[in-house]
Amino acid sequence: MLRIGCHLSSSRGFLAMGEDAVKIGANTFQFFTRNPRGGKAKELDLADLEAYVAFAGEHGIGQILAHAPYTLNACALDAGIRTFAKETMADDLLRLSHLPESMYNFHPGSHVKQGVDVGIAYISGMLNEILTPETKTVVLLETMAGKGSEVGRSFEELRCILDQVELSEKMGVCLDTCHVYDAGYDIVGALDAVLKEFDAVIGLERLKAIHLNDSKNPFASHKDRHEKIGEGSIGLEALTAVINHPKLGKLPFFLETPNELSGYAAEISLLKSRYRADAD
Ligand code: FE
Ligand code: FE
Ligand code: ZN
User: What pLDDT sits at residue 278?
Assistant: First the structure.
């Protein structure tokens, strides 16, 4: 069975997201833990959460993926911004501990001219302050396009972060197809070679989720602009190969394409029709 969903708005709570997921044929979904631009999260509604957990069980919604606000910067130049990133992430993980199963994805950050090594030290330092042996949520580093001074533009940079995290068994990686293609990994012409490289540098056992997006820009453009499935430079054939790859087919896939719910429903049904592993 293809595990697929999309990014949903969390403004109406967990149960509403579960209902939206079912409506569009999804069996998982991604959501922002709070306003994507950062700021205060709403009070956690435990009744809504409980209702969601029951609904998810009834409708076969599996593990879901929380996404940190994309403005968090764990390796900012300004100490106040770094502290804000740390406090926000710690609070997000505390909230997610109320969910039976979840993963938490974040953008490693932008080192803003401090150099990638300084950036990596700040990011892993923050994770070392936040992660505890009790942390149940799997924390994912997202592969980045390499826009500006983004950290995580290469598998090696993610490896360096993991190497410096003491409780790195709590950590995984989320591969964004648009971002890696933008970063210069040719998943269109050489998917096997890219995955081999991922395995050699990071280890495929760390790969826990895929952001399935097409790209508005050509290969290695370092731009990070998502496109609808089949309408960008990656294309439907290459994305079909991704969902059917023997090393990837069992992972959850999350669409972050420029769509309303009806557009997501159409993409999910298209990808389900292209999924061949259902035979096994
Ligand atoms: Fe992201
Ligand atoms: Fe993404
Ligand atoms: Zn992106």
Answer: 60
Domains belonging to the chain, first-starting first, are 4-275 (3.20.20.150)
CA 218 – ligand 1 centroid, Å = 19
Tell me, in angstroms, the distance from the centre of ligand 2 to residue 266's CA.
Answer: 20
d(CA 30, CA 9): 9
Residue 170 DSSP one-character state: G
Task: Report the chain's mean pLDDT, rounded to a whole number.
Answer: 96
254 CA distance to ligand 3 centroid (A)? Answer: 12
Could you tell me whether strands 64-67 and 30-32 are parallel, antiparallel, or unpaired per DSSP bridges?
A: parallel
Q: For the whole model, what pTM was predicted?
A: 0.97
Q: H/E element holding 67?
A: strand 64-67
Ligand 3 centroid to residue 258 C-alpha, Å: 11
Q: Which residues contact 200 (CB under 8 A, 6 or more apart)?
A: none
The per-residue DSSP string of 171-228 comes to: EEEEEEHHHHHHHT--TTT-HHHHHHHHHHHT-GGGEEEEEE-EESS-TT-----EE-
Listed in sequence order, the DSSP H helices in the chain are: 14-23, 46-59, 79-96, 116-130, 155-164, 177-183, 191-201, 235-244, 261-274
